[in-house]
């Protein structure tokens, strides 16, 4: 695979790199996307499952749905795209800003991760906000109760109608704005406010590289678009980096 000369020059001079990732990279690990033709939302109505009102209306149903998703995530392994991103840290100051909740970047070894939509392995009490990881509660299909106050425990993910965690978003936006290269991987970047991340990179004069299986609405903004699987493209970029960094 040959890369554009301008892109290789940007790689050689870059110090700070951001990877903004979405469901597409997780799909390569066997986790369904939400908006594709085989997406999860095509089988279920999101408003019936991924909102606070839905949880209060039928907490056991919503919990069972997320338990099903946990089972899928727990069986998934980071793919070559995830591991390549982690390995980039050997050569650059790397930040990962992700819309994914599956924890695969951390499993792959990435250190600096900003999770815009939460993490399915974390949970918290809706009353006293005590946090629980998945090992601290009984993960049955019945919603657990807080050991401190008896409140309902919900997944620590961002539901429809909820704000993104502001510290994660602001730090991710700052990293994008100060980056030399921003890779947009496996996302069409159309869901706001998360989609402000690549726009912040452009505003900061970062070189915007799209890695998606097909053209997206972002393609017209990208400085360079690479179409194919992240698990194939990112390792090849890493090979180029090793040539001039070794």
Quickly list its features.
Rossmann fold; SIR2/SIRT2 'Small Domain'; 9 helices; elongated
Can you describe what's shown?
- A six-stranded parallel sheet has the order 3-2-1-7-8-9, sandwiched between helices.
- It is α/β, with parallel strands linked by helices and 246 residues long.
- The chain has helices at residues 5-13, 23-27, 52-57, 59-75, 80-87, 104-108, 166-177, 196-203, 230-245, and strands spanning 16-21, 93-98, 113-115, 118-125, 131-133, 153-157, 181-185, 207-212, 224-227.
- The chain folds into two domains: 1-31 and 79-117 and 165-246, TPP-binding domain (Rossmann fold, 3-Layer(aba) Sandwich); 33-75 and 120-157, SIR2/SIRT2 'Small Domain' (2-Layer Sandwich), CATH 3.30.1600.10.
- The protein is 35% helix and 19% strand.
- It contains nine helices and nine strands.
- The protein is elongated, with a radius of gyration of 19 Å.
């Amino acid at each position: 695979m040959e890369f554009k000369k301008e892109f290789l020059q940007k790689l050689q001079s870059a110090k700070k790199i951001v990877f903004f990732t979405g469901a597409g990279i997780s799909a390569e690990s066997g986790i369904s996307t939400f908006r594709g033709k085989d997406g999860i939302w095509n089988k279920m109505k999101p408003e019936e499952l991924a909102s606070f009102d839905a949880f209060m209306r039928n907490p056991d149903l919503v919990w069972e749905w997320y338990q099903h998703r946990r089972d899928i995530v727990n069986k998934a392994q980071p793919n070559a795209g995830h591991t390549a991103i982690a390995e980039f840290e050997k050569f650059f100051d790397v930040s990962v800003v992700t819309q994914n909740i599956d924890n695969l970047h951390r499993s792959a070894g990435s250190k600096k991760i900003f999770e815009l939509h939460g993490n399915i392995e974390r949970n918290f009490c809706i009353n006293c906000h005590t946090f629980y990881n998945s090992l601290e509660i009984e993960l049955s299909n019945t919603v657990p109760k807080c050991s401190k106050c008896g409140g309902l425990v919900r997944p620590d993910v961002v539901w429809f109608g909820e704000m993104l965690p502001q510290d994660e978003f602001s730090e991710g936006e700052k990293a994008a704005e100060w980056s030399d290269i921003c890779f947009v991987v496996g996302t069409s970047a159309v869901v706001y406010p998360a989609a402000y991340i690549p726009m912040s990179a452009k505003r900061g004069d970062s070189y915007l590289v799209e890695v998606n299986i097909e053209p997206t609405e972002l393609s017209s903004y990208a400085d360079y678009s690479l179409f194919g699987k992240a698990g194939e493209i990112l390792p090849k970029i890493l090979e180029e980096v090793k040539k001039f960094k070794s």
